[in-house]
Amino acid sequence: MDDFDPDHRKSNTPLSDARGKPGLPPGVKEIDYSFIDRACEAIGLHKVDKEPANTESVPDVDADPNVEGNQQALPSPKDGFLASCKKSEPWAPFDDVEKTKARMERYSSSDLLDSLSDFKDLIDSSSDAEAFTKTTRKSFIAANIVLNERVRAANDPAPAPAFRPQPKRNKAPKGHAADLSNIVRVIDMHFCWMIGHRPAGRHVVAIFGQCFDFDEAYRFVTARGRNEKKLGHLGLVDTLGAGYCRLGNASFKTEGDRSIWRYVIRKREQYRSDLINTQLKASVNREEWANLLASGYLLTRHDIAITGQKLMTIMHLLGQTNGDRPTRYMQKYGAACRALGISKPDHQSRSAAATG
């Protein structure tokens, strides 16, 4: 297929009226956003009174040839999304979810993940993702953007997109299913930007600036081009990116990444079950230990030496930040391995890990 075309246009639908306000297609009424609050109350979401999580002071990943971009200051949720909503040109196709996002920020990460699970069930139960429209679409986007801003946060951290409930996606989607796939890719790019990834490719450098440009990101994902080439533009072919963001996003992965991701998800469930059935001290957090073991497994499958710093990086992708030093992550990992009788290698090849 053709490479990414900077001048490609996906839609000719007018996006603003004569007064400069966002336009709607003929016959479509303005959405009543108060429905979000009523819907959240109906499914049991609870508001939380707290300040937005501050991710400015999170520690960087240790120097590693597979990790890049860590020298740049990470964005704060306070300036991340709202500053990014500036339109770089009149053609601005990405959804305006600012109001919906403001409502979503009232809820805990756990509640937002529950809501994503509900959206997944709703979308998966519809033909060709027909349910991915109107309020569901806006709420799905807004919830994921809020969660992106909470990845690696000290308080109420959120997992990376790859470890959130995700609706099923087809390899050759059409209609609403294609819209869903493109939106997931934009969310993934925003996640990569939030944790410091700054690719220099000419097709994407403007997207990953001081502010994330959602409009240009949407333009990039809807343009023609193979996923492999877009991975190259994003600087995620020969590197895992800042904070191992290639492992944390849900769509921009190699085929090898997808296979390993499926193994890791199964392994984590196995570890969780084994730990539940193992007698341990009352102080042990079995969920944390299962995630540590899964983190170690993920690193070995990617042929990466296990260190406390790298375990901490993967734990952040899984949505856990407990304030421990890297050495403490390594100590807990070793204790979890001993509890289940698992060998704790300093390094392990992919072929050896595949049999473990």
From TrEMBL:
Domain of life here?
Answer: Bacteria
Spans annotated as Disordered: 1-28, 46-81, 156-176
List, as start-end ranges, the regions of compositional bias called Basic and acidic residues. Answer: 1-10
State what protein this is by name: Uncharacterized protein
Specify the species.
Roseibium aquae
